[in-house]
Amino acid sequence: MTHLSEPPHVLARIAAVILAASMLPACAADVPAPQRASDLVFVYIHGFGGAKKRPRFCANLQAFLDDEKLSNRIINYEWDSVRIEVLKAGASWQEAEVRADEESVGFTSTVLDRLEREQTPYVLVGFSIGSRVLLRALDHSNGKLDHLRGVYFLGAAMTRDTTLDKARLPPDLKISNYHSPRWDIVHQTSFSFMNRMAAGGLHGFDDTGLFENYAVSCTHTHKGVGVHIDYSQLAVAIAYMSLYKEGLVLDGRSGINMATPVGDGELWWNKVWRVPCRIDGTIRTVEIEQNNVVAEYFRALLIEPGGGRKRIARGSNMHAVLNAIDAIPPGEATQENKQSK
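The structure corresponding to this sequence follows.
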């Protein structure tokens, strides 16, 4: 029997190629979901009032991660966002807008560019005028944000006609805009007084090709109206959504539920996510809502063609609620949408 063998120099070259390939970074599909999710970085930009060393949003997010024994990094981007002087509110506001635009350049170089170089997945959260810093930074990016996983605006202090070239964002990504038409007194009064147009953080943005608008029941300042809570409680919902999109599902059970008609929820509920689900053999859109007072309590509502709303699941773990309604994971949902077109 004749045995065929390669010359020594060929074998050496093959070995070198194999070794080099083994040292290449694994692609996202090869990395287990828990590891991808633990690599995810949350970046937060605060609003007015000068540099914030420990914003309530970051504190709430850290508490959630600690409870779930997760080690995700949180970047609180401190910047001098101008303290508003009551007697000079107009001038202070104009200065704040200019400073936000200037700050976006530094944010791009020190945060976005660095995370992209590190190939680190990340989400961006901007509160009030901090959302303006984010939008301008996204505009500076020229659409090279391969590792951006989500953008969330909380009470955005920009006029509702504000927009951005969608090519700046990764494919299939929209900015989730949480606006409070009933309880954001700051936008109802101060912002409307200084601008001819309402804020996107009050009534939502007009460009629905770029923004997903979600009405919430949050105040602009902590407990600014009665017992209503500010936007910082959305940290829990944003953490759940971001981890789920990275493939990590936290253990938990949904609560006992009977399908029940409910009202519009404008007083005590925050609309946080619309997800496709398989219901009776068809794909339907279900709305996930977060309780305004108890941040870790969620419900899933099926929106009927006539506008009726039916609660089909509820519980203290959003991931368990998503499992209970047979939610389609983001990757699968994107693929199904492309196939249906």
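The mean pLDDT is 84.
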